[in-house]
Amino acid sequence: MNILELIGLNAEQLSMLSSLLSIISILGSVAFAVFRFIIQPFIIKSPYLGLWYGYNSSKDKRVATISREVWSIHRKWLSWDGHLIVVARSSVNPQLKYIGELVEDKDANHVLINFTRRGSHEKFAFRINRTAESTPPNPLLGFWVGRDHDQQMVAGMVLVDRTPHTDEEIRAIWDANLAEKTTDYLFRLNGEYMLG
Questions:
Q1: pLDDT of residue 9
Q2: Do 34 and 54 belong to one domain?
Q3: How many domains, in total, are found in the chain?
Q4: Cα–Cα distance between 137 and 139 in angstroms, integer?
């Protein structure tokens, strides 16, 4: 007695059953992919998606400045874990483009973004406050760490908002929220430490 006789199917019926199971498997995979990549992004919204204005303290030729960018935050295409991509373009020089990945650090109540400049090895890390609610506060405040225009390691203030701000408004928001005041909103290591 062979296996086909035990199951009660002949070879033709077994072949049809195998084909039917293959079709069901393929349809299930397609249905999962359609849900995961097409439907789910519209169901699960992130409060960070969309257009933002980013401002960060900087120095150019030893003069304190405020760098301005327009941030576009969107879902990473075909992402299994819902990562968000941030594209930041300089308002002064639109060819200057940074791309980063936004990750929520819910334990610390922060948003982390690691930016890399397109066409360069220049990198910046951002840590921005967020609230525990499902929508981010307006504006978002935090710090960036990287190199400034003078190529020195530096940390500075960040303001990210849905609406544009003047330099005076940005400085007023930073002043109202900084624990320790600085004149240029930048924090550097002592030059002697840098040489050591």
A1: 67
A2: no
A3: 2
A4: 6
